[in-house]
Amino acid sequence: MRSRDETCRILESALSIATSGVDEAEVSLRGGSIGISQFSRNHLHPSKELNQEQLVVRLWAHGRSIACGTTEVSVDGARECAQQLRAEIDRLTPGTEAKGLPPPQSYSPIMAYDEQTAYLPTIERTALAARVLSAAIRASKGSIGPDIYRSRGGVYASGSFLVGRGGVGSRGELLTYAIANSRGLMAYHPSTIVSARIEMESDGRTSQGWVSSYKLDNISLPELIEGTLNKVLFHAHMGVLPPGTYGAVLDAEAVSSLVQIIGQQAGLAAMMEGRSFLAKGLGQQLVDERISIVDDHSHPRHNGAPFDCEGVTRQPVTIIDKGVGHSPVVGWASAKRWDRSATGHARSDDGLSAGEAASHLVMSGGEASLDTLLSQTRAGVLISAFDGLEVIEPQRLRVVGTTAHGMYAVEEGQRTTPLVGMRFDVSLLDVLSHVSEIGTSRWASGAVVPPIRLNEFPLYASI
Fold this sequence. Notes:
- The protein has 463 residues and is α+β, with helices and mostly antiparallel strands.
- The protein has helices spanning 4-18, 75-91, 115-118, 122-140, 221-232, 252-264, 268-272, 332-338, 370-375, 428-431, and strands at 24-40, 43-44, 48-51, 54-61, 64-70, 155-167, 176-181, 186-188, 191-202, 205-213, 244-250, 293-295, 317-321, 324-325, 346-348, 354-356, 361-363, 379-383, 387-393, 398-402, 407-411, 414-419, 422-427, 435-438, 442-444, 447-449, 452-459, 461-462.
């Protein structure tokens, strides 16, 4: 893990090289050290220790910006990138891209680094994976799991334990952890991550679980194993549901995937260009009035960096307030183009080019547990998670997908038969307008969200 002093020396040296002969320049460090212990069908694979750190250089000249990245984090790496970029810029026709990088910013510190997690020994990480396999093997023998069902074909565990330090996300994606530019901006935010993802398979059924935190002590592995096993070890046969509209309880993992789609479509550029649900929904009642959705990097279950990939200070943004479309998130480029204040929401999927999106989402919750929501459902379905989600009409947040990873019948307030997955085609705005009860929020698959009970949810074909 690079110290602040070492990081600043690298960035300052790289910046001094990059600024020569151009209007403006930016250099950043992303990624870091990653350790992965993977397993599949009850077999451990050799652990991997990876160095995934990158130096990214962006230059502005002649109304154009251009970027490149290198794994050579050194003066030589910066020089090679800068030379390549200058040669490419000289070949481009002049553009109209407005220059003006963010000026120096002030940041509130966020606790997201844990020394014990950062240097967790490989053998201890592997031991965590072995505990999952042990639980699957014991479940195959019927020594753990629900009394009403014992697997006929065995229980098989697959998944991974990931530990990262520097700028590594919970999915293993590379994040910016330090950045400097020619206007004097300098930002540094080291973090750690431990992410456990498991899938249990038995007799043709699968269930998935995922938990993540910056600190190993915050993760309850027994709870993750038990929850995942209980979903797959529940009944000997899968039922088939006829197409129709059903009352539904969506567990937090299912809600999380829907809310994250809302965050992806909440940028100012998409709104101003008519590609977002906010284009006509700003100030309008969009969903149930009990629903508020905020992007807040400082939430204790997110612990996100206090700046985005351009070094702009992140600010909490209320996207939906009591059901009403409230505000988009704003990256630096959009802020300049439409004369708005940037909220620190530029995102970079590859470190080279940025869009904008909300990625630290929090949805307001109530007091009810998942069991309480089920007990209030006389007949319907429980949907544990969605799969294959695709936005086909962003203005209405129209989404297609399947319930492939865990759907169950609910009868007289009890979860009963597991069901074959089904397809759906819905507007998320319609779905979130038919909420009858909201549960307690928790971290689930990348967002802090509650389970919800819906009056209706359409399912049109088995998969």
